[in-house]
Amino acid sequence: ANRIVVKVGTSSLIHPNGAINLETFDQLAYTLSALNNQGKELILVSSGAMGVGLNKMHLKQRPAEIGAQQALSAIGQSELMTLFTQRFDHYLTDIAQVLLTHDIFDYPKSNKFVMDTFNCLLKDNVVPVVNENDTVATDELDHRTTFGDNDQLSAIVASHMNADLLIVLSDIDGFYDQNPKKFTDAHLISEVSNVADDEFTVAGGSGSRFGTGGMHTKLLAAQRMLAENRQMVLANGKDPQIIFDILAGKPVGTLFS
Ligand code: ADP
Predict the structure, then answer these.
(1) Residue 12 main-chain phi, psi, to 5 deg
(2) How, if at all, do strands 41-46 and 127-132 pair?
(3) Does the structure show a pLDDT above 50 at 240?
(4) Is residue 7 a contact partner of residue 169, using CB atoms and an 8 Å limit?
(5) What is the model's pLDDT at position 1?
(6) What is the pLDDT of residue 172?
């Protein structure tokens, strides 16, 4: 894989107690910088804005109001980028913030602008760090399902940017036959070639306090990738160097192929 989209979830960036997982930030920057130096084209899709915002404002729980959540995301987003900029600087890699909405590729004009932006950044070896633009993402009906759903956004980006591989990093080793946070006898499924009703049935919601989509949105992302003959790997982001193993073809996580 030469063009790779990496999506990192809130659960990998924020500890369960709400503290920021600085080690993940650092190891992600280290790993992506090393790959960037090898000539790979990387796009990072990062969640965590609200988690970082909660941390910054010393809040324990996300507020119920969507507007208050959007405000917290706005606070957290700049802090999130500061954390990434610091760590990527350390490894001499330039990054850029790209804020998108789920439907941005649906309109010919914005589609072209976004693609041109990505292509210029990649040509210059800059790693785009993508997040949903939570302030303007107000798709009324869809709001509760798409707000904060970077799983599907990462698949949309991978699809339009013609990436061969999407790596989704979460707080879990992969896709299980039942929610492993609830059932101790859950088994990891190492390869999935088709995502259908059976898979969605065993996909539960988020297991962490700050996570959002849970397994459901990850399966939707996988479905999109499979439909276009692209690969997706779901793996544990607690050590982002797992990306090296994935690219070396080692059997880690769940491969959707
Ligand atoms: P992230 O913040 O990384 O996007 P989420 O908390 O949204 O993570 O989603 C990951 C969680 O999905 C897991 O921690 C787990 O509790 C839950 N989950 C539900 N069903 C499954 C399943 N079948 N296999 C794996 N994880 C599952």
Answers:
(1) -85, -25
(2) parallel
(3) yes
(4) yes
(5) 73
(6) 94
Q: Is the minimum distance from the CB of 12 to ligand 1 under 6 angstroms?
A: yes
Give the closest residue to 224 by CA, choosing from 125, 155, 141, 137. 155
Question: Can you say how many angstroms the Cα of residue 141 is from the centroid of all Cα atoms in its chain?
Answer: 23
**Ligand 1: nearest atom to the Cα of 8:** 3
Judged by phi (left if over 0) then psi (alpha if -120 to 50, else beta), residue 206 lies in beta
Strand 175-176 to 231-236 pairing: unpaired
Beta strands in the chain (DSSP E): 3-8, 41-46, 95-100, 127-132, 165-170, 175-176, 188-189, 191-192, 231-236, 254-256
The pair of three-digit structure tokens given for residue 195, joined into one six-digit string: 């995502």
Checking if the pLDDT of 139 tops 60, the result is no
140: pLDDT strictly greater than 50 = no
Q: 98: CA distance to ligand 1 center in Å?
A: 25
Residue 214 CB–ligand 1 contact under 6 Å? yes
Closest CA to 85 of 136, 133, 114, 46: 46
Tell me the average pLDDT of the chain.
92
Summarised one tens digit per residue, pLDDT across range 32-84 is 999 999 999 999 999 999 999 999 999 999 898 888 999 999 999 999 999 99
